[in-house]
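Hi everyone, sorry if this is the wrong subforum. Our group has a chain we'd like a structural model of before ordering constructs, and none of us has done structure prediction before. Sequence below.
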Amino acid sequence: MSKIKILIADDHPIVREGFKQVLSETTDMLVADEAGNGQEVLNLIRNNKYDVILLDISMPGRSGLEILKELRNEYPKLPVLIVSIYPEEQYAVRAFRAGASGYLTKASAPHELIAAIRKISKGGRYISSSLAEKLTYYLDIDAAKPPHELLSDREYQVMLLIASGKTVTEIGRELCLSVKTISTYRTHILEKMKMKNNAEITLYAVQNQLVG
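Answer:
Right subforum, don't worry. Here is the predicted structure as tokens:
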């Protein structure tokens, strides 16, 4: 029986080890390679063949969503499962719009991860029951877009970090970007959402259940 060849892309070695431990207990899956950042993902995929990519959203430099969009352009049929620390209501809709085959949080049970990989490797989509109802609304092209839907993926990521109370310097360090770049993103966020300061961003995020 041929095994499902998997590439794990996450910048935390301990997370990759956790995935490998879970997947090693299956008889039909093989972790073929690992990547710690977006460029490594692209380099590996261009030189090797995989059946499924496990991709984290938050990685140094280019985000998982940016990498996902590039993969969709180059390898439109390659199944990508987003596995993220962020809850579904924050990023799942954007992930599916960008071309993900499935979305799981890192808090998901191991059996759910295995089920998701098996399903998307056969060309299906994996959507948890809790996410299905949200997607029905958000993916409706006729649905009125809330203000945060006007933001780019990177602007949205910065907005959530601002709303969580992090400073521009802390956000820059986390995303491996300069303070000046983060400040520019913040300016765009305020302009697009017609807001004046970080307090308004935080209040909006809390009211819309984007942060806890």
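For your construct planning: The chain has two domains: 4-138, 147-207. The mean pLDDT is 90.
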